[in-house]
Amino acid sequence: MRHQCIVRTAAQDGDAWPFAVGGKAALINVAGCFRASSAAAANEAAVPGLGIGNAPFWQVRTVFDQDRIELVLTDFEPPPIPLHALSAAMRIVPAKTKLFVDLL
Predict the structure, then answer these.
(1) Cβ-Cβ contacts under 8 Å for 37 (sequence gap 6 or more)
(2) Are 51 and 34 spatial neighbours (Cβ–Cβ below 8 Å)?
């Protein structure tokens, strides 16, 4: 069964989505009738069922928590990308810096 995908036209990988296939990272070309240049528009298009979207979970957490979307293809999620926060050495870390690092 083929599904319509919601394609982000400004995505770094174009019409290819990252997946893990057989334990290895793979880019799979997708197609769909709905295309959006912004992540917000693409994510909102998934809510009424215009297609399957591909987004970082933090971008869709709210609509997921509201049961407005469901996760699919979770067995093929690519490994997470490591993210490190670096700052200048200081005795007192500003509150906004601490909040940002805690969010990560």
Answers:
(1) 8, 9, 10
(2) yes
Say whether 26 sits in a helix, a strand or coil: strand
In the three-class reduction of DSSP (H, G, I as helix; E, B as strand; rest coil), residue 66 is classed as coil
Average pLDDT of every residue of the chain: 89
> What pTM, to 2 d.p., does this model score?
0.71
Strand residue runs (E) in the chain: 6-8, 16-21, 24-29, 34-36
- Determine the Cα–Cα distance for residues 49 and 6; give it in Å rounded to an integer: 10
DSSP 74: G
CB 17 within 8 A of CB 30: yes
| Pairing relationship of beta strands 6-8 and 34-36 according to DSSP bridges | parallel
Whether residue 92 is predicted with pLDDT greater than 60 in this model: the reply is yes
